[in-house]
């Protein structure tokens, strides 16, 4: 227990609960963590040396170095999604403003079971709408052909918002590998996405993840996900396919009862995934447009996406194949100066610049990620990364990204961003 | 890295892996795969700086600092590999013991801003002082206190004053 904090009994209870919870996590294979960490360390060392060489003798050597480097010594499978935590966002102005009778966790489980085919259930967990936490249900369902995890979650999305545009859509094929995904407009104006893909982008395990995602015009968001294993991650597959067909997924997710569950969620003004304030208002011009305007003319833009107020990506081609370029533009990051710009170069006007050349984040073979990270004195951080592949989960398709470190630096330091691009 | 240093590094990393992983699970609010990723990245960074780390007064604390900073750097950036969906936190042994408590606690942690979560983990899991926490996060002690008060207030709101009610099903 930290000092001078014993006055508050909640604090003591919380600290004890946190310790209990922390100790309940066990890694299956600590040696693998150490081993893979060492592999990363060796790569980092090599990249550092390579970058130094490149700095002395020109960019071409960096390319050679990167090619040498990425003869993969160890396959380093990586996770797929960084999203953490329960239901992402709700807004007080979305969906019904007046909470209806709350649903208990048992109510939700019962409704779910009524909609599922005959089978048995284990590991039932649910959260009702009588709590500040977002409602959900989770069961391990077995129709006789193998136990399968099944999850149902709910949220509210403000109609017309960026989130509403993103929900119940198919992920970009450049980013997520999947077998099939369709979206459809239902007669009531709802949008439905039916997705058949995998738990892991790199398919390091055969775990399939299928889901049906519904977004009503009023902003009710319902997500039903199923796996062909008794757990999302870390359990061997128990059957070739998840138990429900896409037709059955559709039937369950579009049941009348679920919008009522969402309506009965308490409205909360400050319920956001991170709890942090939303980024500054919508700009007329998107980050992606601005980025496109800063690219060298010889590059063709062959793909784009992820348009958000602070983030965008483009896929560019200089004639040698697609190269993913992603950018984050984040105001109010002064407090990260010490963390992220510890060894940064400081320009005369106070701007900080760091550069990194590292392996890609998805563990695909031969992928390099070249990054220039900048921080203005006013706290605006612009960080741009380019890859030698059109999609992070795809193996490298070219020796180096389509932009040089110098070009990335020019883009990141452009004064266009200061104008609130 | 020479053979002896390499052996020292391996011994240190093996001894710390379990604890760093548990810390990472709390920082990521139960996202065990992200936690694995962060621990590997932390070990990668420690490997590169092993000379400095091994001479540090407290290499274990240094490792924790690297983990926390790696986490914050990660959480602050959107990447093309992410896609926002409603997801459940990966929960440890959900079927046993205090599963409802863990579930609720992880969900509540997930609702904190990344930096507040880091403050909470450093203070209540790592038992760091306000000053030590400030040092890890490169902020003032006052900023740590503010974040801590805010985070506890939010957790109290989410978990209820009497946490015991969650402690048994």
UniProtKB/TrEMBL annotation, chain A:
Transmembrane among the record's keywords?
A: yes
User: Sorted alphabetically, which keywords does the UniProt record give?
Assistant: Membrane, Transmembrane, Transmembrane helix
Which segments show compositional bias classed as Low complexity? 80-102
Annotated stretches, region: Disordered: 77-105, 263-288
Transmembrane segments in this chain: where? Answer: 50-70
The identity of this protein, by name, is: LigA protein
Q: Which organism is it from?
A: Streptomyces variabilis
Automatic annotation (TrEMBL), chain B:
Record-linked CDD domains: Sigma70_r4
- Pfam families in alphabetical order: Sigma70_r2, Sigma70_r4_2
Q: Which UniProt keywords apply?
A: DNA-binding, Sigma factor, Transcription, Transcription regulation
Domain RNA polymerase sigma factor 70 region 4 type, residue spans? 104-155
Q: List, alphabetically, the InterPro entries matched.
A: RNA_pol_sigma-70-like, RNA_pol_sigma-70_dom, RNA_pol_sigma-E_actinobac, RNA_pol_sigma70_r2, RNA_pol_sigma70_r4_t2, RNA_pol_sigma_r2, RNA_pol_sigma_r3/r4-like, WH-like_DNA-bd_sf
Q: Which residues form the RNA polymerase sigma-70 region domain?
A: 25-78
**Cross-referenced SUPFAM superfamilies:** Sigma2 domain of RNA polymerase sigma factors, Sigma3 and sigma4 domains of RNA polymerase sigma factors
Q: Which domain of life is it from?
A: Bacteria
* UniProt record similarity statement: Belongs to the sigma-70 factor family. ECF subfamily.
NCBIfam families to which the protein is assigned, alphabetical: SigE-fam_strep, sigma70-ECF
Q: Please state what the protein is called.
A: SigE family RNA polymerase sigma factor
